[in-house]
Amino acid sequence: MGLDKTVDSMDEAVADIPEGASLAVGGFGLCGIPSALIAALLEQGAGGLEVVSNNCGVDDWGLGLLLRAGRIARMTSSYVGENKEFARQYLSGELEVELVPQGTLAERLRAGGAGIPAFYTPAGAGTQIGEGGLPWRYAPDGQVAVASPPKEKRTFDGREYLLEEGIRTDYALVRATIGDRHGNLVFRSSARNFNPLAAMAGRVTVAEVEHLVEPGELDPDEVHLPGVFVQRVARVFPDDPAAERRIERRCVRTEQEGGA
Question: What NCBIfam families does the annotation carry (predicted)?
């Protein structure tokens, strides 16, 4: 691969993602999700996907589109509370779900990308996270078909810690505000929460960028994720319906309540 990592379209960017691939997907709620790449993957047709993402979108947007189409077999997430279809599939045994404390999930992605196979954390010690028995998959009759295993424990300075494994995935899909042709990326505000970490975890990382710039235009101090972690860059255009920035839960005040 040359230094110019740009591809001509979202379809080209995800064309080789196979059935059953594992994906790390960036975003926080609906903020900073790679919605154009997700839409392209929906059209591409791959299913049986094992997805690692902080959450699974909502019923009609983001990863929720892949979920509704029955294309996700397993989710590793920290928060899944805004998606009724997610709950239905999980409770009916159609979807396997591993719930991970949010900070632990972030560090598992970062560790995987940094080549760290495992680490100890106090998060979850003394709970079912450490003891095991959390339902990963239900049977159609409502019984637990697959439960989480117990985690290895060690004590440091009198405090119990759990061993957590780093996460590596076949692919990663992320969205950046600015990117150059070498794959150096800049994220904006909350979009920076999980996108850099997901990008690090992917063996092949695909970035959709809102503003594509030439190499050298970004000051090195501006770069949030260096291009060494990125293999493909695709520009997303603001008039693309799949690039819409949606608000997960719109909250407004009436004039009587002091709103504008």
Answer: pcaI_scoA_fam
Contact 86, 56 (CB under 8 A): yes
pTM, two decimal places: 0.91
Residue type for position 140: P
What whole-number distance in Å separates Cα of residue 191 and Cα of residue 177? 9
Task: Give, in degrees to the nearest 5, the angle at Cα 118 between 71 and 175.
Answer: 45
Give the tens place of pLDDT for each residue, 18-59. 999 999 999 988 889 999 999 999 999 999 999 999 999 888
Phi, psi of 215 (to 5 degrees): -55, 135
Any residues with CB less than 8 A from the CB of 157 and at least 6 apart, and which? none
Q: Give the three-state DSSP class for 104.
A: helix
CA distance 229 to 201: 9
Beta bridge partners of 234: 208
β-sheet with 159-165: strand ranges across: 118-121, 159-165, 153-156
The number of beta carbons lying within 10 Å of the beta carbon of residue 145 is 14
Q: If you ran DSSP here, which 8-state letter would residue 192 be given?
A: G
For 74, 143, 201, the CA distances from 136, given in Å and listed in that order, are: 9, 11, 22
Amino acid in position 34: P
Question: Residue written as tokens 């009436």?
Answer: 254
Nearest to 102 by CA among 126, 83, 121: 121
Residue 121's DSSP bridge partners are 162
∠ at Cα 109 (103, 112), nearest 5°? 135
Q: What does the alpha-carbon distance between residue 145 and residue 21 come to, in Å, rounded to a whole number?
A: 23
